[in-house]
Amino acid sequence: MGYSSTNIHFDYDGQYAKSGDDYEWIPSDGRLYGISFKTSSLDEITYSCLKERICKKKRIDPCLKRMNLSYIPLVVEPKRQSYILDDEDVYVYLTSVDKEGRRSILHVEVIEEMEQQSVVEKESSYGGNYSELASGLLEVEAGEGGVDSEGDVDNSMGVRPSSYYVELPRVAKEKPVVKEWEDGLGLQLFQEFESKEAVKDIIDRASQENCFGISICNSDRGRYVVKCRGADEGCKWSVRATKIDKSEAFSIRTYRNMHSCSRVTSSTGKKRKVTPRCVAAIVHKDYPGLYETPTAKILVGLVQRKLGVEVSYTTCLRGKKQAVADIRGDPEKGYIILPAYLYMLEKVNPDTKTSLVVDKNNRFRYLFVALGASIEGFEYMRKVITVDATFLKTVEGGCLIIATAQDPNLHHYPIAFAVVDGEKNESWKWFFTLLKTVIPDSTELVFVSDRNPSLIKAVGEVYPMSKHGYCIWHLSHNVKAHVNQGRDEVALQFRKVVCLYSEHEFKKQYDDFRERYPSCARYLDKSVEVKRWAKCHFPGARYNIDTSNCAESLNALFEKARRMSLLPMLDTVIDKMSEWFNRHRKDAAEGPSSRKLVPLVENKLHKRTPKGSKLSVTVLNSFQLEYSVIGEDGKTYSVDLQQKTCSCRKFDIDKYPCRHAIRAIIKCLEHDKPLQLSDMYDFISNYYFITTWAKAYVEKSEYINVSYVFSYVS
User: Which of 314-323, 408-417, 438-447 has maximum average pLDDT?
Assistant: First the structure.
């Protein structure tokens, strides 16, 4: 990028006089001064920057001078002055040149000069000035990496000295009106803030809470300088922050924390104004991290009580929205550091799989994350994966996809999640293709989901060996839509039929359902294969997982996260997963050493055993461990302990003993105990043992947050 010099000539102090129809400038001493800016663009020269350079040239304090900048345009007839009030006016002045590249002389009109001692401009032997000596306070400031008011190079000795103070006798002591008081800011020299806005926020809020007014001396891209509104009374309070080189951060370079003014005058001379940013700061302090905050109407009263300042409903509404935006994060910044975030995620969590896809214009399309801990732990889970997608509530839109298993104690066990542009054929196939890299295809694998056509197609193409069942909760809502009344009862009756274990019992109950609700039965016969939804007809090991509610409840759990921009949402999801892993690992490690099963199954067997032990049992084949048990309903059930089956089908599907099997096991262990069997635990699937449960939560999951990644990138 090229740089060019812009030269400006100005005369200092004078006034305009009318001569006929024209105005002309009458200088006070006739001297001209010159300043030069070296920039890549004219719009880098701001109004405050221009005033700062003029004050530096004249060696005056900008906080002690009030001046107007103006010029007489070359092309205006009759000639009259044009005042410079803001950055746009500066740009107009700089670009108003004739054919030879000449521009008008800049006129600096001093409209008010505050009273100060005559020794201000005379430097002392130590390099300061006598006005600072007279104040009784000397502050020497230096730092590294900072941009001073004119871009001057900092102390070159390589040492950053601390601010120090020298107490000297005053030239003339005046009796203070009020005792000096602190501003409540608590800043420190060289303290850094992430942006200029952050500096402004903390100063604005302190001025409101502690009831003092501020005046802005300079505010541009490289500095923010404020003084007390009571400076006219001699109050020396001030803050100066400058931009750190090659960064957006600002550093405190000058800070005088004591006020000598009276709040009566400094806070009442002008109406104190509360900004939306200030309202947002109050919301963050009182409701940290929350989206659901009080209404703007309530915030009006809250701000009044906190700051003692009247504020409008509109300002509070804007402040409330700003607070929400702060939590959601900056989407643009998030997308920039996303690759670094994923890199660090893989580095901190071994075996983690991530994938990022962008389009030809380098815009985000897809994101996939599977933590290494989840991948390794899935080996010890039942091989049933529920999948669901939900829409993101952001401007960018898109969908959050979650694939999760269920641990034997009915806890969520997220395996992978993704952010895609919608529930389309391409996005679903992309997700399952990535999932297959961490969970391979297998005849043992089962997927449970709603009946989204794109999802069904993707599972069939990517996982041809797996079994795919439909969520009965979603299906029941589709079924009840085919009746005009009693819809909730229809859905309930349908779910009861679906959950039957025995094919004989299912046929009987489903025939009855068909007679009562023929339109619903016709819909099912036409639209859905019975093996996709009926538990007793499902060809794979689905266990007790009949719905995709596990994945859906995760989506509900992340309701607030879905309103965030991408990186804060990822942070929330991964943080929650890390929390679950640590909690369930602790649960598995606690408890008596004699306990072998997860609490859920242990309690179920504990309740079944008293009733099961009283059933009548007959040995059919002691060698093959086959028994006949008469149930509480008077029906006879065949139990095969060697194959771990029962004609009621609960033992077969759930993989732990039903009441009939419990009675057969008791009989077996009492009289026909084989050498390889010792207790009831020998007839239960390994998935329900605490040792297996603990292995699923390996000590491998750690959390990496956005702020850490951002510091890494910086």
Answer: 438-447
- Please say if the pLDDT value at position 47 is more than 90: no
CA angle 97, 100, 104 (to 5 degrees): 35
Per-residue burial over 500-537, b = 16 or more CB atoms within 10 Å of its CB, e = otherwise:
bbbeeebeebbeebeeebeebbebbeeebeeebbbbbe
User: Would you give the distance in Å from CA 445 to the centre of its chain?
Assistant: 34
Q: How far apart, in Å, are the Cα atoms of 462 and each of 324, 386, 565?
A: 40, 16, 30
Q: Would you call 565 exposed, middle or buried from its count of C-beta atoms within 10 A (0-12, 13-18, 19+)?
A: buried
Residue 594 belongs to some domain of the structure: no
Within a domain: residue 11? yes
d(CA 706, CA 430): 26
CATH number at residue 25: 3.10.20.90
Q: Is 86 helix (H, G, I), strand (E, B) or coil?
A: coil
List, edge to edge, every strand of the sheet that includes 616-621: 616-621, 626-630, 636-640, 645-646
Q: Clarify whether residues 201 and 105 are in a common domain.
A: no
Are residues 290 and 177 part of one domain?
A: yes
Q: Are residues 322 and 350 in the same domain?
A: no
- Tell me the pairing of strands 106-113 and 4-12: parallel
Q: Which domain holds residue 226?
A: 130-155+163-328
443 band by pLDDT with thresholds 50, 70 and 90: very high
CA distance 88 to 573: 46
State phi, psi for 239 to the nearest 5 degrees. -135, 135
Distances 566 to 116, 203, 400, 709 between C-alpha atoms, Å = 55, 31, 10, 14
Q: Give the integer Cα–Cα distance in Å for 679 and 682.
A: 6
Alpha helices in 223-295 (DSSP H): 263-266, 276-286
The most confident of the ranges 128-132, 291-295, 392-396, 410-414 is: 410-414
Indicate the pTM of the whole model.
Answer: 0.62
Residues 372 and 459 in one domain: yes
DSSP designation for 709: H
Strand partners, 388: 402
One domain for residues 617 and 550: no
Same domain assignment for residues 284 and 403: no
Burial degree of 475 (CB within 10 A; 0-12, 13-18, 19+): buried
Q: 446-449 and 22-27: which strand pairing?
A: unpaired
How far, in Å, CA of 534 to CA of 495, rounded?
9
The DSSP secondary structure of 124-157, one letter per residue, reads -TTSSBHHHHHHT-------SSB--TT-----TT
User: Are residue 214 and residue 251 in the same domain, yes or no?
Assistant: yes
Give me the number of domains the chain comprises: 4
**Residues 106 and 14 reside in one and the same domain:** yes
Q: Are 274 and 309 in contact (CB under 8 A)?
A: yes
DSSP 109: E
- Rg of the chain, C-alpha, whole Å: 38
Taking alpha carbons only, the member of 625, 646, 644 closest to residue 688 is 644
Q: What are the DSSP E strand ranges found in 321-453? A: 353-358, 364-370, 384-391, 399-406, 412-420, 446-449
Is residue 697 in a domain? no
Measured CA to CA, the distance from residue 442 to residue 419 in angstroms comes to: 25
CA distance 543 to 655: 7
Residue length of the chain: 714
Q: Is residue 708 part of a domain?
A: no
